[in-house]
């Protein structure tokens, strides 16, 4: 129940995140608790560091800090800008240059 | 705060609540010398029968938290309840404030709604 609540908070703030289902791996589920010395789930990590559980994330949300510590979902415009600048010459095409067989290497 | 309130203001060690509630209260008092302590059995809100004592919420007001980020404050609470968290205590909501914070805002967050599942 607490896990779903935390997902809602992250979604509300447009935070880009991946998740791991600890029910899918008992080794991780138990191992992470001792690895991080944190006894419960959910556990939120930002840039490899434990931020805490639901209680802490709620306080960070209330204080506004959540928005500063968590990277947001990249806006499409920013993503497009980043893509068109990926190389000095960028071709957006249907298919890939290897497939055309036209000697583009 | 919803749920049976098992503590009087001032952190007096009363006999209210089940055995786990009393243990939690005693351990937190010994470890953190709180100026205010509330221990709440949330188990009924998580589908347990009354007196199940599996899910607790604690509000700890202590000078020991001064200068500590939230993560460290919660770790202090976990440390005090290490044995319980390895055992019967399945979920623990923690609110950790300094006396100054508590004085300027004496409101504890409500217990989160239960959407199913165990925290561990």
UniProtKB/TrEMBL annotation, chain A:
Note the coiled coil stretches, chain numbering. Answer: none
Provide an example Pfam family for this protein.
Answer: Glutaredoxin
Report the PROSITE patterns cross-referenced here.
GLUTAREDOXIN_2 (PS51354)
In terms of SUPFAM superfamilies, this protein maps to: Thioredoxin-like
A GO BP annotation: intracellular iron ion homeostasis
Residue ranges constituting the Glutaredoxin domain according to the UniProt record: 1-51
* InterPro entries membership: Glutaredoxin (IPR002109), Monothiol_GRX-rel (IPR004480), Thioredoxin-like_sf (IPR036249)
The superkingdom listed in its UniProt entry is Eukaryota
Q: Which GO terms describe its cellular component?
A: cytosol; nucleus
Q: What is this protein called?
A: GLRX3 protein
Q: What is the lineage of its organism?
A: Eukaryota, Metazoa, Chordata, Craniata, Vertebrata
UniProtKB/TrEMBL annotation, chain B:
**Pfam family of the protein (one):** BolA
Q: Which GO terms describe its cellular component?
A: mitochondrion
**Where on the tree of life does the source sit, at the highest rank?**
Eukaryota
Q: Which residues form a coiled coil?
A: none
Gene3D superfamilies, per the entry: Phosphatidylinositol 3-kinase Catalytic Subunit, Chain A, domain 1
Q: Locate the region Disordered.
A: 96-120
InterPro entries recorded for this chain?
BolA (IPR002634), BolA-like_sf (IPR036065), BolA/IbaG_stress_morph_reg (IPR050961)
Q: Which family does it belong to?
A: Belongs to the BolA/IbaG family.
Specify the protein name. Answer: BOLA1 protein
Gene name of the encoded protein:
Bola1
């Amino acid at each position: 129940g607490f896990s779903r609540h935390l997902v809602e908070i992250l979604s509300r703030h447009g935070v880009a995140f991946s998740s791991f289902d600890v029910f899918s791996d008992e080794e991780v589920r138990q191992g992470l608790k001792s690895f991080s010395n944190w006894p419960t789930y959910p556990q939120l990590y930002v840039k490899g560091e434990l931020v805490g559980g639901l209680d802490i994330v709620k306080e960070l949300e209330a204080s506004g800090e959540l928005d500063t510590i968590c990277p947001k979902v990249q806006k499409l415009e920013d993503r497009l800008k980043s893509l068109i600048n990926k190389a000095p010459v960028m071709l957006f095409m249907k298919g890939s240059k290897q497939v055309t067989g036209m000697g583009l290497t | 705060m919803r749920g049976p309130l098992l503590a009087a203001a001032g952190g007096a060690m009363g006999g209210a609540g089940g055995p786990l509630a009393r243990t939690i209260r005693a351990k937190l008092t010994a470890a953190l010398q709180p100026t205010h302590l509330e221990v709440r059995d949330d188990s009924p809100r998580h589908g347990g029968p009354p007196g199940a004592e599996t899910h607790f919420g604690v509000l700890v007001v202590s000078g020991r938290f001064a200068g500590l980020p939230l993560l460290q404050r919660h770790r202090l609470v976990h440390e005090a309840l290490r044995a319980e968290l390895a055992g019967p205590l399945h979920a623990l909501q923690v609110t950790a404030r300094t006396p100054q914070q508590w004085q300027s805002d004496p409101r504890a967050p409500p217990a989160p709604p239960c959407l199913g599942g165990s925290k561990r």
